[in-house]
């Protein structure tokens, strides 16, 4: 059965993270049968990481504040999490299902496909976003 996405509900969750007036810093998009729907949402990145267990696959849209002494910027990451215990067929299907998520989640600085908890490290993600972010004035302070 082909995967579908609840675009309207997912767009609402996506917009919560993008809205500067909310405290929501992340949302997940999960599978409900063969439909991708909004999952959890929250403020703390550590809570998001706990949703990424070995037996699930999910998509996360996460807000990070990056930058340096001269400039702070908000950057968004699209994280595809595929747990270690997810079957080969589901792993393969996640790649094609991601195109459905990208119909909703269109603005992000960097995309990650992760199945190792070490790569979920907040500093690692922020560093990768910083590299993708253009101007870096840190060198002037060293």
UniProtKB/TrEMBL annotation:
InterPro entries linked to this entry: ADF-H, ADF-H/Gelsolin-like_dom_sf
Keywords: Actin-binding, Cytoplasm, Cytoskeleton
An MF annotation (GO) of this entry: actin filament binding
Signal sequence segment: none
PROSITE patterns (alphabetical): ADF_H (PS51263)
GO cellular component terms listed in the entry, alphabetical order: actin filament; cortical actin cytoskeleton; site of polarized growth
Top-level taxon of the source organism: Eukaryota
Domain ADF-H: 2-130
Any single GO BP term: regulation of actin filament polymerization
Annotated SUPFAM superfamilies: Actin depolymerizing proteins
Cellular compartments annotated: Cytoplasm, Cytoskeleton
Functional note: Binds to F-actin in a calcium-independent manner. Has no direct effect on actin depolymerization. Acts as a chaperone for ALOX5 (5LO), influencing both its stability and activity in leukotrienes synthesis.
Family label: Belongs to the actin-binding proteins ADF family. Coactosin subfamily.
Subunit architecture: Interacts with 5-lipoxygenase (ALOX5/5LO) in a calcium-independent manner. Binds to F-actin with a stoichiometry of 1:2.
The protein's name: Coactosin-like protein
Annotated organism of origin: Bombycilla garrulus
